[in-house]
Amino acid sequence: MREFDYARADSPRQAVSTHGSNEQAAYLAGGTTLLDLVKIDIMRPEQVVDINRLDLNEIETLDDGRTRIGALVTNTALARHERIQSDYTVLSEALLSGATTQLRNKATTAGNVMQRVRCPYFRDGVSSCNKREPGSGCAAIEGHNRSVHAVLGTSEHCIATHPSDMCVAMAAIGATVTVEGPEGQREIDFLDFHLLPGDAPEREHNLKPGELITHVTLDAPLNNGRSGYLKLRDRASYQFALASSAVIVTLDGDTIVDARVALGGVGTKPWRAHEAEKALKGQQVSESSFQRAAEIAMQGATPYAHNAFKIPLGQQAIVRNLTTLTA
Amino acid sequence: MSDHQNNGDSRVETFDARSPSRRRFLKSMGASGLAAATAPAWAQIAQASQQQQNAPVEPQDDGAPAEGEQQIQLTVNGVEHTLNVKPNAVLLDVLRDRLMLTGTKKGCDQGQCGACTLLVNDTAINSCLSLAVSHDGDSVTTIEGLSNGDELHPVQAAFWEHDAYQCGYCTSGQIMSAVAILNDDNIGSDDASVREAMSGNICRCGAYKNILAAVQDARGKMEGAS
């Protein structure tokens, strides 16, 4: 692994001042993305700012009913937290469907938000990849684009899916990302945090140089909401989603009062399906209403040579999840 | 290795596949340094295996760190070490190359195979994706720290009894994951839960059936013991 300078921070302020606006510095939390990519020379930090000692390990219920998660809460701790399991079931299920036991033990909430794409052309270090080498092109568009390539939110410059399951659940729940940076603290709506590739796929998120995620705050859970995460993949465990859905519904008898739908595995960012939610509200629980919403969710999808199956699969992820939750 | 072509100046490493001693020989070179270098190979082998069987790893103290090094305290299998490491030193490599605790294996080196699984403060993690310097003050348990003298840990004994390996390379990672899982009340005791919780430990020989049997058998023995 390449050499880098190392500093261990004791407070968010100190972490931010150590990092400064240095584009060649990187914050280190669980390390499951960063160290992996440094080892294969895709990320090349000159300085690593270790934030593991920061006091950002709490999960707190706020007075307004929201839930504030410290950046360093591990994926395991978050998934196992009593309130997350009961009030944000979709988030617990999403977390436990991702990676492996030992990776979830290391991986953090903020690190999961910041994880990089799994596109093999990004990771191989030699193929054209606009994320890795802006302007070099996208080998995936004409290449093997079956499993970790999107049909929603793609551009002619990048079609890699966002790999996170946790983020899909957060997109459905609604959340705010709190960051601390050289210019102070600010909040970013979770749905605005990740960027579409557009013509600048190397820009993946809304952080300014040196900004550090300190918390993710979940919106208050829907009253009497039922929620679940359904992940469809090539292997039953330890595999990224081909298509997944995070769904929250509230019912009055057989009528859908409110619904939240987000998709994973099919989009270039955690994909909230607002139009599908509108189509569900006020409808009776039925396969036809679910199917209609699912078709709306996948409207505008662009299939590539090997991933056209993701359009019906994404629809099916929604229909089946809704069917289970409303049974 | 031995069938590689010799390209120009590059050296071709060869070894005699019939000799079982290469690994121990290298290990003894690392452990005993130059003093042993002039001794006959068989003496080094005997010395190395004796060290491994009888002597726990001695506490290491590197003294003052050189420029560019970080000093860390690391408790490994109950023994406290003061080590100077470079910032990019990986926990797995420090355990294997500095402390000569080679029971923890390097497989993919990318967090994908689980061969390097060990316990940090009783939690199973991939040591290949861990900077040693990040673990200053932590307590590490490796496969070498499981047995009580000659008495195997129930999970080790169960792997033995159930023949839960073929080549053995993934075994220490499998065992460390199993120990963590059996001590975690949040993970279900049914076969499906164990398979899911162990999915981060890949066995290319495909000994999964026997691994599962060993884990479930050890569960009964650990519950019986407590």
TrEMBL record, chain A:
The keyword Flavoprotein applies. It holds the Pfam family CO_deh_flav_C. GO terms for molecular function: FAD binding; oxidoreductase activity. Residues 1-11 have a biased composition (Basic and acidic residues). Keywords: FAD, Flavoprotein. InterPro entries: CO_DH_flav_C, CO_DH_flav_C_dom_sf, Diverse_Substr_Oxidored, FAD-bd_PCMH, FAD-bd_PCMH-like_sf, FAD-bd_PCMH_sub1, FAD-bd_PCMH_sub2, Mopterin_DH_FAD-bd. Residues 1-22 are annotated as: Disordered. Residues 1-223 form the FAD-binding PCMH-type domain. Coiled coil: none annotated. PANTHER family: OXIDOREDUCTASE (PTHR42659:SF1), XANTHINE DEHYDROGENASE SUBUNIT C-RELATED (PTHR42659). This is Xanthine dehydrogenase YagS FAD-binding subunit.
Automatic annotation (TrEMBL), chain B:
GO terms for molecular function: 2 iron, 2 sulfur cluster binding; metal ion binding; oxidoreductase activity, acting on the aldehyde or oxo group of donors. This is Xanthine dehydrogenase YagT iron-sulfur-binding subunit. Residues 43-55 have a biased composition (Low complexity). Residues 70-146 form the 2Fe-2S ferredoxin-type domain. The keyword Oxidoreductase applies. Gene3D superfamilies: 3.10.20.30, [2Fe-2S]-binding domain. SUPFAM superfamilies: 2Fe-2S ferredoxin-like, CO dehydrogenase ISP C-domain like. Residues 1-30, 43-68 are annotated as: Disordered. Pfam families: Fer2, Fer2_2. It comes from the Bacteria. NCBIfam families: TAT_signal_seq. It comes from Kushneria indalinina DSM 14324. The lineage of its organism: Bacteria, Pseudomonadati, Pseudomonadota, Gammaproteobacteria, Oceanospirillales.
